[in-house]
Structures are given as C-alpha cells and as structure tokens.
Amino acid sequence: MDELRALQDKIAELHKQGRIQEIKPLWEQAVALARQTSGPKSIAYAVTLNDLASFCREIGEFEQAESSYLEAAEIIAEAEGKNSANYATTINNLAGLYRLKKDFSRAISYFKEALAIYEATLGKDHFLYASGLNNLGLVYQDLGEYQKAADLHQQALNIIRNLDNPLAYATTLNNLAGPYRFLGKSGKATVCLQEALKIYAEIVGKEHPLYASALNNLAAHFYLMGNYELAKTHYLQALDIFVKTYGPNDRRSISIMANLERIEKKIGSDQN
Prior knowledge:
Elements (H helix, E strand, L loop, with lengths): L1 H15 L7 H15 L4 H16 L3 H19 L4 H16 L3 H18 L5 H16 L3 H15 L5 H17 L3 H18 L5 H16 L3 H19 L4 H21 L1
C-alpha cells in the first residue's frame, strides 16, 4: 500500500502543478496495483478505480469514466451495501458525468440518492454533503431553474465557510455567481467571481486549470453584462492555460474559442 500511496501523492502533485497530460498512466498503474495487492473485489481497488474514472471525466474520456464508475459502484455495493459513504461518492461522481453528457434526469436521480446517503452516514455539516448540494445546484442551473440552484449553492456555502477548505469555498462562490447573474443580481455575481479568482490565485497559482475555470466564468459574466473587451481579456487568459494543460482540441479550449469568435462579431457589429 506504500507504493500505491506514493503514486497517489505523485498524481496529486502533478495535478496541483497543472501537468494533467502526465497523469493518466499513473492512475492506470495505481488501479492495476490496487487490484493486484488488494484483489478485484476490494474497496481499495474500487476507490482507486473511482479516482481513475474521475480523471477520465476531467479529460473528456466519458466512455471509460462511465464504465469505471459503474464497476466501482458494483464492487462497493457488494462489499459495503448501497448505504455507505464510498457508494455515495461513486454515484455522486457518476451523476457528475451524466450532467456533462446532458443526461439531466439521471444526474438528478443519482445526486439526490448520494445526498440522502451522505446525510444519513455523515450528517449535514460534512464537506461531502455540501459538495452534493453544489453538484445538484449545477444541474438546476443547466435546466434554467436559477432560484433552486442559488438556494442549493447558498446552503453549500453556509456549510463550507465553517470548514478549512478554501478551494471548496472558492468553487462554491463560482457556482453561486451563475444563478445570481440570471436572477438580476449582477453585482453579487461579480463579487463572488472575483473573490473566487483571488482564492484560486493564492492556493493553486495562475497557471492552474482551476484558475483558468474561474477566469472563464468571469469572462462569461462580463460577456452577458455587455463588457466585451473585459470578457475577451479573461477568455484569452483562460484559453492559454487550457491549451497548455489539455490541448487545443479539449472541450474547454474549443468552447472558449467559439466564445471569442462571438465576441469579435459583437465588437465588429458595435463598431459599424
């Protein structure tokens, strides 16, 4: 297990440095090691498989992510039952994948199931419960149910502000800004996004994909407010980081390039 821990520590350090393209072989090595040392039906193997799935989800390899999540969930359900925190974490992550695939009904179902398990096993003051609230809120944002989303993100923020987890706090501020903007609270949204950006800069630095995501969110906010020059500046900064981290063909890079195209058209039409 020392070898597995060493691999996980190395992966965490690479992720912190934004060296994403070096990570997948290490996760695959970790999964093989966990299977070999603990067995194919072990919790250690299932948890490591879950971690590989989450990384695959991050880099857009959705098919491998889904199959790995489902295998991990089946192992955990057999070993611990479907009321364990490990099972809840796996289906919570699977729900996040379904959200990215725009399968919102399955995403909501799994998120709600995970939340119920977290509440029963860990309580409502736990970070994982707050994370589940955040995730469910994001689905409702996608569906345009902004008040429901804002309420969920605010509940999560109330929990996380009492925990020593500045990155989770920044993420929740980012999440809350979305529904604020669409509920006509642009000033509050700006404050949330700028505070989140500052936290990311201090914790992970200005070359990390988390910082890029915050730049991207702030750019989208400025675009919707009609401030196209500020939006362009922030999109370009985010794009530079995403291309360095994931490459030009990643969904994040492609999305920003499309947004920059729209901005150029807006700026061009305003000048005519």
